[in-house]
Amino acid sequence: MASKESEAVRRHWAANRKAAEENIQDGDQELADHRWAGLTTEPADVDYLAVPGRRATWIVPHGAAADRVLLCLHGGGFIGGSQYSHRKLFAHLARTVGARALVFDYPLAPDHTHPAQVDDAVDTYRWLLDQGIAPEHILFTGDSAGGGLAITTQLRARSVGLPLPAGAMPFSPWVDLEATGTSYNENQDRDAFFHRDLVRGLAWIFLGPDGSPRDPFVNPLYGDLTGLGPIYIQVGGDEVLLDDAQQLAIVAAKAGVEVQLDVFPEMQHTFQMAAGRAPEADDAIQRMGRFAQRVLQLETP
Predict the structure, then answer these.
(1) Does domain 29-296 have CATH number 3.40.50.1820?
(2) Which partner from 91, 143, 258, 263 sits 20 to 30 angstroms from 209, CA to CA?
(3) Does 22 qualify as catalytic in the annotation?
(4) What is the per-residue pLDDT across 257-267, written as a single tens digit (0 to 9) for each?
């Protein structure tokens, strides 16, 4: 049975769905970010440093390895979310790993449609490399739309001649912009927020009039994942996006990529946002931490 603490995530999504169904518009992005961030506790022994000249924040756990970096791609359906909504979540993860993390703001739709987001992510990755961080010491991670970006950014980076990072940790990844998964039917009464029409609507906003949901830089299920580093995927068992995670794991395995998928029963989309409050979220963070330490060749504390 899901913990009572994890129910905060379900309530968050249920409130968002009610607002969407009643067409209540919340144009205050800062307030929306604050509400989302409220699911997560503030981790101890972590410093946040602004990055001059970039829309980004360094997350620096005390005693963290300076030469290992998590490149963090926030979720929000490409229309919301920010470094501020996800700062604490990625701080919990960085502290568990024992590495620094960089979380940044990419351009949002509808003002900026594809490929603005993936190109900005590639630019941020290039900037990290220019800071002297070795690619094998960089691990991509992200939730939902950011989970998809954790894969598509690698494909885009490779296409422009950049080296691949050590691997990726997408959680609740959104990759199938056509919303074809069977879990849309199987979990339609369990997912507190998402449904097929809503997801296709988000995809339409993100892609714009000229974008294709089968572009491999949008949907990695149509990409060549051969040669990518290890991928660790987490997803909630009650999500309609469950099939996205499962299909991504299948495509990665067929490409010869080391891939691991953990499905957390009764959990909602991005349940990891309850880090520091819900035992399921803390368990998920610990699992990601162990994976990251191995892939980044960090000693387990």
Answers:
(1) yes
(2) 143
(3) no
(4) 999 999 999 99
